[in-house]
Amino acid sequence: MGEEEATTATFSERRHRKSKRKFSKVRDSEQLDRLESLPWNSSISQDEHDDPFSMIVGSNEVEGGGFLSLEEIDEAEYGLDIPEPEYIQRNKKLKEDTDLNNKKSDGGDVKVETVTDEGNKSNESKKKKKKKTKKKKEVSENLKVEQTDAGLDTNVENDIGEGEIDETEFYAWNELRLHPLLLKAVCKLGFKEPTPIQKACIPAAAHQGKDVIGAAETGSGKTLAFGLPILQRLLEERDKAANLFEEMGEETERYAPTGLLRALIIAPTRELALQVTDHLKAVAKHINVRVTPIVGGILAEKQERLLKAKPEIVVGTPGRLWELMSSGEKHLAELHSLSFFVLDEADRMVQNGHFKELQSIIDMLPMSNISPEDNSQSAQNCVTVSSYQRKKRQTLVFSATVALSADFRKKLKRGSVKQKQSLADGLNSIETLSERAGMRPNAAIIDLTNPSILAAKLEESFIECTEDDKDAYLYYILTVHGQGRTIVFCTSIAALRHISSILRILGVNVWTLHAQMQQRARLKAMDRFREKENGILIATDVAARGLDIAGLKTVVHYQLPHSAEATRASAEGCSIALISPKDTAKFASLCKSFSKENFRRFPLENSYMPEVLKRLSLARQIDKITRKDSQEKAEKTWFDRNADSVELVTETYDSEEEQVNKHKQMKASSGKLKKLQQELNTLISRPLQSKSFSHRYLAGAGVTPLLQQQLQQLARQKVSDQKGSVLGKKGLVVIGQDCVEALQALRSSGEEVECFTFYHILAIAY
Ligand SMILES: Nc1ncnc2c1ncn2[C@@H]1O[C@H](COP(=O)(O)OP(=O)(O)OP(=O)(O)O)[C@@H](O)[C@H]1O
Questions:
Q1: Ligand 1, residues 182, 183, 186, 191: which to mutate, most atoms within 8 A of Cβ?
Q2: Which of 621, 586, 583, 609 lies closest to 473, judged by CA?
Q3: CB distance 165 to 188 below 8 Å
């Protein structure tokens, strides 16, 4: 007998002993049938109006069946019936006293009744307490057993000692009616209350058996919002099996079989998959549920070995998962047993290179939306699947942002998107993914994100351009419409570095924010940006998620966000997407996910462009030279450092002629750099002017107040420039008719363009 079998045997023996003690109430087969026919949670109201979550989660139809209702689990058995905190008890007592006094003042023989009541209560509570202590002892034993079985740390008392936890602090979890062992785990982790996304998702996914689309900002606790329902279901099944054990003996194995894949969680990156795994492991630590990560970067053979242990929950990235699935890995092929299919960070998944693999994995899932007969037929083919796992698979899709079309639910109902239809149209949205994965029309849609840039107060617009022209248009926007705070979004750090370098050379003071920055540096950048009335922040969309920026007037999407991004604008403003041919598919997808039919083309004053391009050309040349120089310096330092570390004496083997040449080159390069910088400084020390602008106009009578203001600003700037360098200051002054806020410009002359037309025109043009 293998080690694992031995463990299982010990486990079932112990379970047998345990169930004899705990569940002797389940005795005849009638009872068995009753349990079989139980809804997931009979106490859940069928009436939408009674459901506190119906506002956010939509229809409240109870689905599924056959699982043990939570009412049948005596929480006291686990010793974690979280008592009310003192303040609630005090309030209740106060209320009781007031009621009593009111009744007294009404007259009547209340006192005797109340005393009797109190007496009964205290007797009852004594009995309960006794029962609880006994049960507590049992639970403690049970936990020890489970831990030994799982090969975990056996010192349970030390690890989850009751004394360490002030249970009343965790009272808020009671309303979610989690399995007591899960309750215990979250208490142990110190999570005092469920986060809003957990509060909204757990009832829908764990008690109503619904599919869920959940969106909330980064760090809002989404992992447990899907993790707890998964663990809840596994525990309920186990309890049910334990209840039935006495009746059916070894047959029980059918109801809570071990060694099947029950939940497949897919995340877009290795880091995220590992993070989710750790998080779930921390909660599942004491309940003998195995969670295994399957990600790239780890030897495939090692992961195959891990899968041989048959974990119930697998968390993976699409690439490695598909690699193993397509090579016929056995555990991953058992998809009929799957009760949960989860897509985490779905917004990132639809954008990155893994999409094809994800599509292939989804295509391997047995469809849960097909008729029940077909479904059971396919499940019968898989003999290892019990009637419990054959219940519908739940699809849970989580994301930091979500933008569903208004008729999404209708589409799911109609099944308008064919399940296995190809996504050749390039519209890879969360909607399409969810539909393909078999999401049911009554899915709970829980969107707790902040209003997105595109949906909030910012008015949307776009500029069509080539990839190469983006720098010019960005400089144009910042110069001509740079009033108020501006955020420039890009999706890669390389692009962020490129833009910030060019803009700084052009004398535009910018701050940067990206995910690789230390937290302290990020906060500093944000503070500086917020301090400046006309501050400019260049940020990657991931780093800037969920930011709330007062006075944000303009958002420029240098690269399109991975999804409908969520940065809040508390003032009215304008968002401008720079759309190159490369971006058209993504742009069309975003339009679609917003159900937007029209976007406005941002109005441009082309007469500024020659001057913009001239400055930009100089800035690019300067950037190229300085980059080359700093790269050479960095390489040299690296070489010297390494030579030093191995005590190598470095000598220059260049001939004299070569050395002279090198020196000449360096001198020429630095001379060129100086000249370019001088030329650029002269240009940027003058305001940006449109080509049609006439200097003679200034001498005439037609100087507008705006122009006057700009000239004064220019004069002030010149004075300050004399004190310091022109570069490094934000000295953008524009002379012309278009120096207005971007929003104002857009409202006055932005041309409406149908998204569909836009998409097709661009597709043909490039
Ligand atoms: N109820 C809770 N109370 C306090 N902390 C919690 C709670 N639930 C989760 N956390 C903690 O909050 C942090 C963020 O949780 P989680 O990673 O699930 O967020 P997320 O929304 O998935 O974020 P991301 O988008 O970065 O993946 C984690 O460190 C987790 O341990």
A1: 191
A2: 609
A3: yes
- Cα of 45 vs centre of ligand 1, distance in Å, is 30
Query: Phi/psi at 593 (nearest 5 deg)?
Result: -65, -20
- Which ligand 1 atom is nearest residue 192's CA? 3
9 membership: H or E segment, kind and range: helix 3-22
Is 655 domain-assigned? yes
253-269 burial by CB neighbour count: b if 16+ within 10 A, else e? ebbbbbebbbbbbbbbb
- What are the pLDDT digits (tens) for 386-437? 444 445 789 999 987 666 666 677 777 766 444 444 444 433 567 778 888 8
Residue nearest to atom 23 of ligand 1 (CA): 219
* DSSP label at residue 335: G
Same domain, 548 and 597: yes
The rounded Å distance from CA 220 to ligand 1 centre is: 5
Exposure of 749 in the CB half-sphere (CA atoms within 13 A):
7
401 lines ligand 1 (CB under 6 A): no
Task: Show the domain range for 533.
Answer: 458-607
- Whole-number Å distance, alpha carbon 748 to ligand 1 midpoint, is 44
The residue that leads in pLDDT, 488 or 409, is 488
Q: Which residues of 659-670 are buried (b: 16+ CB within 10 A; e: fewer)?
A: eeeeeeeeeeee
282 CA closest ligand 1 atom index:
31
Output 599 or 72, whichever has higher pLDDT.
599
| 195 CA: nearest ligand 1 atom | 1
Q: Which atom of ligand 1 is nearest to the CA of 217?
A: 21
Torsion sign (Cα): 632, 634, 637, 643: negative
> 555 and 439: one domain?
no
Q: Is the beta carbon of 190 within 6 A of some atom in ligand 1?
A: no
- Is 194's C-beta closer than 6 angstroms to any atom of ligand 1? yes
This model of the complex carries an ipTM of 0.96
Task: Indicate the residue among 560, 589, 607 that finishes a domain.
Answer: 607
Whether 143 contacts 166, CB under 8 Å = no
Domains identified in the chain, total number: 3
- Determine if ligand 1 sits within 6 Å of the CB of residue 223: yes
701 located within any domain: no
Do 527 and 652 lie in a common domain? no
Whether 508 and 584 share a structural domain: yes
CA of 203 to the centre of ligand 1 (A): 18
In a domain, 439, yes or no: yes
- Domain identity same for 599 and 657: no
Domain boundary among 685, 703, 720: 685
Residue 276 lies in a domain: yes
175 Cα: distance to centroid of ligand 1 (angstroms): 19
SS3 561: coil
Q: Cα of 222 to ligand 1 centre, how many Å?
A: 6
Torsional sign, CA 241, 247, 253, 255: negative
Q: Are residues 599 and 616 in the same domain?
A: no
Rounded distance from Cα 198 to ligand 1 centre (Å): 10
CATH number at residue 269: 3.40.50.300
Per-residue pLDDT tens digits for 100-158:
555 554 443 333 233 333 344 444 444 444 444 444 343 333 333 333 333 333 233 33
Cα–Cα dist 406/412, whole Å: 12
Question: Of 224, 228, 280, 450, which is best to mutate to test ligand 1, by the most ligand atoms within 8 angstroms of its C-beta?
Answer: 224
The answer on 334 and 296 residing in a single domain is yes
Is the CB of residue 348 below 6 angstroms from any atom belonging to ligand 1?
A: no
Q: Would residue 551 be called left, alpha or beta, if left means φ above 0 and alpha means ψ between -120 and 50 degrees? A: left
Q: In whole angstroms, give the CA distance from residue 560 to residue 416.
A: 28
Output the pTM of the full model: 0.48
- Atom 11 (ligand 1): residue with closest C-alpha? 221
Q: Do 497 and 538 belong to one domain?
A: yes
